[in-house]
Structures are given as structure tokens and as C-alpha cells.
Write a structure and sequence with these properties.
four-stranded antiparallel β-sheet; three-stranded antiparallel β-sheet; single chain; alpha+beta; elongated
Length: about 220
């Protein structure tokens, strides 16, 4: 009866049911290690838990897992795949694979392709907006024609999460100011390229550009 995008687990006393919608918009994988069965939306979780990746919950299916990790797979709808483009570019951690795409390699190639398409000849330094754009920035600076990647822009990991979902502009701007830190001595008097992977409201980009210019 559900419409739209969903990927979730139903937990009961003696079984787990993993469900993925027919579009396969969000990833949902499972891994195994002996009698241990793990479901995760990001494959890098398996490496952390020392679990072997074993497959994906296919779009339009659910998997029932009872005692002893016995799996029963049921298809409830035909697959109509519409995978979320934000997952490999932004949402997912670069240490994992999403939709079968190795994300570290994908983002490095994405940055290199961006530099090929939009070079900034004469630039000395490439900065990536932490954390998700840093690998893309590494790819952008790989050739050296448009500057080299330097991690001179960092993020405070306890200063707030997604700024674009906060309800008021003043709160969004205050969170961005607390969230990022520039290495002024590294940036000063340099020609800088700033690489980001997504722009929703432009709040982060406007404030970061202003701070980098203030740093010289």
C-alpha cells in the first residue's frame, strides 16, 4: 500500500523483515559472518563490523530473517529503478560502495572530469567543502594544472549537522560559522579553487567564500 521511496527494517521478537521499495531509490545491503547477518544502508558498515558483503535487498522485495539467520526472499512488486543521484555524489560515505559504484574512485574521477571541463589555470590551491566534497576536490587537483589539493578547510564534527534543513536563515548562517574552520596561514595570498558537491540554499557557499576572502 505504500507509495514513494522507502528502505527500512521491521523488528519483531523473533524475526527481522528488510524492505526496499520498487524504485530502489535508497540502498539497502546485507552482509554475513558465520551466523551473523547484518543489514545496512551503507556498505562501509560491513568493514567496520568485520562482516562480508553478501548482496543487496533487491528493489520491490523484502527479506524475512528468522532464528538461525534463515532468509526468505519475497518479491511484492516489479522493480522500476529510479536510483537517487545524491547517494553516490553526496549522501554516502566515500569508503563504501553504493549501487555497485566504488565511491572513492567515482568521486576522484568526478573531480578530475570537473577540472577537465572547468579548469582554473593559475590557481595554487584546491579546497573541498568538508566532508563529502573533499575527495572530489582531490580529484580536481590531481593534474596540478588548477592547483593542488590542500586540506586547509576543516569541519567541526560536533558543531551541527545538515544546515540546509534548519528552519530559519539566521540559524543556518550561525551553524555554518561554527561548523567550518579555515587555516588562514595556508590560504593567505593564494589563488584558491573551492569545490563543493551540492548547493541547496547557497548559505554554506556564500559564507565560506566570504571567509576565504577575509583570510586573504
Amino acid at each position: 500500500q505504500l507509495r514513494g521511496s522507502y528502505s527500512f527494517l521491521l523488528l519483531f521478537r523473533d524475526e527481522i523483515i528488510a524492505v526496499r521499495d520498487p524504485s530502489g531509490c535508497r540502498p539497502l545491503s546485507f552482509g554475513e559472518n558465520g551466523h551473523l547477518l547484518v543489514f545496512a544502508s551503507e556498505s562501509c558498515a560491513f568493514e567496520t563490523l568485520n562482516v562480508r558483503p553478501a548482496g543487496e535487498v533487491e528493489p520491490g522485495t523484502f527479506i524475512r530473517v528468522g532464528t538461525g539467520c534463515a532468509k526468505h526472499i519475497t518479491r511484492f512488486a516489479h522493480a522500476r529503478e529510479k536510483k537517487c543521484s545524491f547517494e553516490p555524489v553526496y549522501f554516502s560515505h566515500h569508503a563504501g560502495d553504493t549501487f555497485g559504484i566504488p565511491l572513492m574512485d567515482f568521486r576522484l574521477r568526478l573531480g578530475a572530469a570537473l577540472e577537465e571541463e572547468c579548469p582554473a589555470l593559475g590557481a595554487e590551491m584546491v579546497l573541498g567543502v568538508p566532508d563529502s566534497a573533499m575527495v572530489i576536490a582531490m580529484g580536481y587537483g590531481k593534474s596540478g594544472r588548477s592547483g593542488h589539493y590542500v586540506p586547509a578547510l576543516t569541519r567541526h564534527h560536533h558543531a551541527g549537522g545538515r544546515t540546509f534543513i534548519l528552519p530559519r536563515q539566521d540559524r543556518r548562517e550561525a551553524t555554518v560559522r561554527r561548523k567550518f574552520q579555515c587555516s588562514v596561514s595556508a590560504i593567505k595570498d593564494k589563488k584558491v579553487v573551492l569545490v563543493d558537491d551540492s548547493i541547496v540554499r547557497s548559505t554554506t557557499m556564500r559564507l565560506l567564500v566570504s571567509r576565504i576572502r577575509m583570510a586573504g
